[in-house]
Amino acid sequence: MRHLLSNIISAFIRKKSLRDKVRTMIRYPQVWDYIRYVRRYARNMKHHKIKTVVGYGCKNFVVILNDKHVFKFPLLNDGFAVALRETRITDAFRKISPIKIPEMRVVQYKGVYIRKYEFAHGTLLTDIDPKIINKYRPHIARQIANFLYVIGTSDPAEIRDLKNKPNDVPGFMYGWFQGDIWQNFMLDTKTFDINFFIDWEGAAFMDFGDSLRVASHNWDKFGYKGIIVDLMAEYAKLYFGAKKK
After folding, report:
1. 3-state secondary structure at position 50
2. Cα dihedral 190/192/194/198 (nearest 10)
3. What's the pTM value of the predicted model, to 2 decimals?
4. How far, in Å, CA of 189 to CA of 212, rounded?
5. Tell me: the pLDDT tens digits for 123-157?
6. Is 12 helix (H, G, I), strand (E, B) or coil?
7. Which domains does the chain have, with CATH numbers?
8. Which is nearest to 75 in space by CA: 130, 127, 2?
9. pLDDT tops 70 at residue 8
10. What 3-state class would DSSP assign to 220?
11. Residue 74 bridge partners (DSSP)
12. 9 contacts: CB under 8 Å, gap ≥ 6
């Protein structure tokens, strides 16, 4: 009944982000308890400002507190397996990543495992005017390429068991990778340095090809033409340059 009601109401809402939020709040009444949890967390703060976001695929309900803390509540299960996996991956890559990874810890509440993150300051790549992005395209592409190269060629011992084949070794466009590179970079809009890479839930040891094609398609759709070409040129330079040494 809740699903039917949410679909009927959502049909009248044009904006996708608002449509997803309304649908989620109707289907999953526990989100109101999650908001109260964050308000209790903030009770000793002089001021508190709360924003809510629905995660991709409506799998998570995200509450942002004072642009300082981010709470990600699972909606489809208790969240334990995903939280444990993401913690292990981010702990491994935080030591080597050329782009900052937000600090993360896991909190248990009423049998649910909440992922609490440091707020990642900056502006999402896909929220910036394409004309501006294209002006700084080589600088942005170099940073993304270096990030893909460093993470992709690494092989942290503490997470080898998370590979489909634990004995797999990194190669050209093959290794540890987070598929949503087209949208998860947070930029400083004064310098166009990338401050953070967020959301490591989908990271895996894989071939980069399919995800790069998705990134290219979405960047083209948003008007950021040419980033994928610059990125691949820089990545190849890093990868094959290292092989020659």
Report:
1. strand
2. 80
3. 0.88
4. 24
5. 999 899 999 999 999 999 999 999 999 999 999 99
6. coil
7. 2-118 (3.30.200.20), 123-244 (1.10.510)
8. 2
9. no
10. helix
11. 60
12. 22, 23, 26
